[in-house]
Amino acid sequence: MAREVVLYIAASLDGYIARADDNLDWLTETESEGDAGYAEMYQSIDTVLMGKRTYDWLLEHTDAFPYPDKKCYVFSTTEKGSTDHVEFVNEDVLAFTRKLKEEDGAKIWMVGGGGILDAFIKHHLIDEYIITVTPHILGAGIPLFKANNPEIHLFLKESRRYGQFVQMHYLTTRDGN
Ligand SMILES: NC(=O)c1ccc[n+]([C@@H]2O[C@H](COP(=O)([O-])OP(=O)(O)OC[C@H]3O[C@@H](n4cnc5c(N)ncnc54)[C@H](OP(=O)(O)O)[C@@H]3O)[C@@H](O)[C@H]2O)c1
């Protein structure tokens, strides 16, 4: 069975994942209860995917690379090769991800951001959507969903409250297979 790609991401109530200037203070300042399911998600995956702008944000804002124990791929058309922690990918998104899903292993985390996620949604590559909503209407920023997506019908597996967050966990198939 192909391994699942999980989108685990936080967004404002009006659907932004970052302010236009990449500021995430609104998210980090939101009062949570526990880790909002992060540890459970993190132990279920062995591979991490992200776009180059999200990678750059992490380098700038974290003291140490946060996913050193996972295989990390960063999609980029400008950066090549690899570092101690990540491998840069400039391949057809659909072909690359299909191949990855057929490899042995655990689930795959699509971290974001909005640019690379758009390709994943349009190619129907996300199997689980775990969206954690903050109590903000930001009015502008980087959207979680861009325009002209295909129509995708999901099944609600669970909804949970973590302090001021609400988390919705959707599957693309009713039984998760
Ligand atoms: N709220 C959350 O949970 C959350 C999660 C993740 C990220 N974020 C935030 O989102 C922001 C970044 O999002 P973003 O939408 O601006 O950027 P992004 O999706 O992280 O990265 C975009 C970059 O990825 C590369 N890319 C995109 N599509 C590609 C493709 N098909 N093939 C190869 N490379 C491709 C390109 O890099 P090159 O220019 O090198 O070609 C592009 O400039 C940051 O502020 C980050 O902190 C928030």
Explain how this protein is built:
It is a single chain. With 177 residues, this protein is an alpha/beta fold. Helices cover 22% and strands 32% of the residues. The chain contains 5 helices and 10 strands. The protein has helices at 25-28, 38-43, 52-61, 93-102, 114-122; strands at residues 5-12, 16-18, 45-51, 71-75, 86-89, 107-112, 128-134, 142-143, 155-162, 165-171. The strands form 2 sheets. It has an 8-stranded mixed beta sheet with strand order 5-4-3-6-1-7-10-9. Strand 3 (45-51), helix 3 (52-61) and strand 4 form a beta-alpha-beta unit. The longest helix has 10 residues, at 52-61. The mean pLDDT is 97. The chain binds NADP nicotinamide-adenine-dinucleotide phosphate.
Rg over CA atoms, rounded to whole Å, is 16 Å
Q: What's the arrangement of strands in the largest beta sheet?
A: 5-4-3-6-1-7-10-9
**First and last CA, distance:** 8 Å
Q: What spatial form do the alpha-carbon principal axes imply?
A: globular
What is the arithmetic mean of pLDDT?
97
Multimeric status of the protein: single chain
Assign the structural class, choosing from mainly alpha, mainly beta, alpha/beta, alpha+beta, or little secondary structure: alpha/beta
Number of helices: 5
Which parts are unreliable, with pLDDT below 50 for 5 consecutive residues or more?
none
Order of helices and strands: EEHHEHEEHEHEEEE
Amount of helix = 10-25%
* Largest sheet: number of strands, sense, barrel closure: 8 strands, mixed
Give the names of the bound compounds.
NADP nicotinamide-adenine-dinucleotide phosphate
- The fraction of residues assigned to DSSP E strands is 25-35%
Number of strands: 10
